[in-house]
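Assemble and predict.
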Amino acid sequence: MKLGTMLSDVTHSFFRRNITQKYPFERFETPERLRGHLHWDSEKCTGCGMCGTDCPAAAIKMHVLDKKAKRFVMEYHIDRCTFCAQCVHSCNQDCLSMQNDVWELAALNRDQMVVYFGDPNDVIIVQEGLPEPGPECEPAPE
Amino acid sequence: MEIILDFLRLLIFPSGLFLLLAGLLYEWVDRKLLAQLQNRIGPRWFQPIADIVKLMGKEEVIPDGSNKWLFVWLPIAALAGGLTAALYVPIMGIKPAFNFTGDLIVTLYLLSLLTLCMGLAGSNTMDRYSLLGATRTFTQLFSYEAPFMLALLGPALVAGSWQIDKITAYTQNHWLIFTQPIGFIVVIIGLMGKLELPPFDAPEAETEIVAGALTEYSGRGLALFRLGKGVEMVVGLTLVAAFYLGGVSNPVLFLVKTLALLVVVAVLQAVLSRLRIDQTVGIWWRYGALLVLVQWLFMFVGQRLTL
Amino acid sequence: MEEIIERKPFEVQVGPQHPALKEPGNFQFTVDGEIVTKASVRLGYAHRGIEKAAEERNWIQNIYLVERICGICSHIHAMTYCLAVEHLANIQAPPRAQAIRVLVAELERIHSHLLWIGVTAHEAGFDTLFMYSWRDRETIMDILENLTGNRVNYSANLLGGVKIDVDGEQKTGILKGIEILEERTKHYLNIVTTDVFFLQRTRGVGKMTQRQAEVMGAVGPTARASGVARDVRIESPYGAYDEFRPNLIIEQAGDLEARFIVRVKELFESYRLVREVLDRLPEGELSVRMPRRIKPAEFAIRVEAPRGELFYFVKSNGTDKPERVKVRTPTICNMTTVVKLVVGHQLADVPMILAGIDPCFSCNDRMVIVRDNRKIETIESRR
């Protein structure tokens, strides 16, 4: 039966620095596997859209402008993303990855939370809501 | 001329404004020490002042069913008791402004007035948490008062007077911590009970009864109670330092001795866990009273032997 | 003229907002002075409709929905769901994936128990133990962040395996962290069993006999502290637990001190299991392909979450969305013990008894409909 069993801890801490990380003045290195902002490699994409289907938070939407010519635009909502990396594994072509150094993603308004990846002209088409040229299809019968 | 000097002593220094700021400073030192012992950063130096300023600016909400006059005047009475008690105690090593025979008893009772006002404030409101907190405050008041007072009267007995500055004149040459060690232990623990510091903070146990007797207080009332607690801490530490640690004759010695006592109190706070109210009463009435009676026995025997 | 003042019982409400509760729940205690004479509980404040939401999402999206039922036992929920769905599709995850799942589950158990020590110490007023055990919790969270990428909600599971691999550098990092934690845990065991003031708050408080624990259906460390010798990892091993066997840890006293001892000893057991898994990690691939549509079948599975026995029932109907996912978490079994045991104790013991069962209110809010002779009652309204 002892009184004051934490005395050793307490006297030890009296002479040491505290362990609080004084963020934002002190920043530690992020671990390698941290899941931050999404990154899309457009070369390998085939436009299957599995990333959008499997996303639990509906944060990815794949706009297919022309499947044969490989014109895709990916709309990514940062505020909906849960950073689970399911899209990274659902993609069969390995074109998605999550960067580990871009993780301070707070913003002051919602507009900054939607990111479009793709060719700038295609992005304008999607953003303006112009009718997207669909995949090649047969003309309507007379 | 004397009247103006008396007013200055009452309102600015050593009582009044200076004492309020000193109380906040000691509260900050206590919190910062506790944080350092728990391996974290504590608040910055102006945190208690910022708390009081913020509280003064908030609206005071008077709950239904409580007596309005009592609700508003009890915090004022509590702070007034604390500030008055400081007039008889050598703050900053300066001779007390007013002294008369028996002012030790008056000071102790004025300090108890603060706790009494907090308990009354709790029983005044119709909130369950406040009623439970008030019950606990009064229970704790009954339990530590007797040993704490007896331990403070020990030095009075050997000094042969009930007047604080005569006692301090005696203790300047005799360090009573060595001749009455048991009394010193009892008085330090009694001080922690009086100030409701852990392990004796059952009356304001945050995880059980939200905030105890002061649950319904906000705004100015809460600010005055907190100031009163800070003042009580300074006055209590001064009394203990003056009686047991060889008197306080100049400001430097005052600061050094009271801060050393505060370090001891902070270490005890960090290392012990909170006790239930019935366990507090049990400890006080069994061990506290017993120790202080043993100390008095030794004092009597010692006096008989030296005569 | 005399007024007859009606003597109403003095009721103290703890919740839904109270400093003693970390999550909302409502307890009403009738007190007489400081002694509690009657208690009743009302839950349902964190009900989010997860079981219904699971029927609208496909099998893969549901992993992440189910992971967010609870913050501290998130991996075990995801692991159980994946095990159940893999069984429905008649697929076995490869041995390396199962072993890594066990590794993360044991690391999560360490995290949960360290958190619990801190929270219960805070309820007792022992803030120093709270700060120090949460400082050590940072070590395990750093290990988990290096391994999986996140401090809570690890998202390590995939249907058919795991996402993450353990290489040599990870292994040394984990072993170093576990060594530090083992030293600290020995210190905590010493504190919890010998500190006089802390023992006064925990010894003899909330005593539950073995018979009471069995009748009320208590599970997990709460029941094991009363002598009930049940641990799902041992009696019906799932995943890789038939290779890496834990030992059963029980105490007979049944009070709060026994619950502390059981959980701290389980920490030692988890350290041993983590070392064993890292030592004998089988080689192989990390995941296998799963079909997107699963044939109609149903399956029920029990696992050992940090708080007790977790039960899942999954039913498929041939499409890519589940027909029914039913979750029964351990806290709801232990909640009745609180209501029963608190009677006769002082009000100051009540937060300790509540924290002693390791409550996770966000886990336990399911709605249960009880049909009794054509009268339908929901479990929330039963007082």
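Chain C is about 45% helix and 15% strand.
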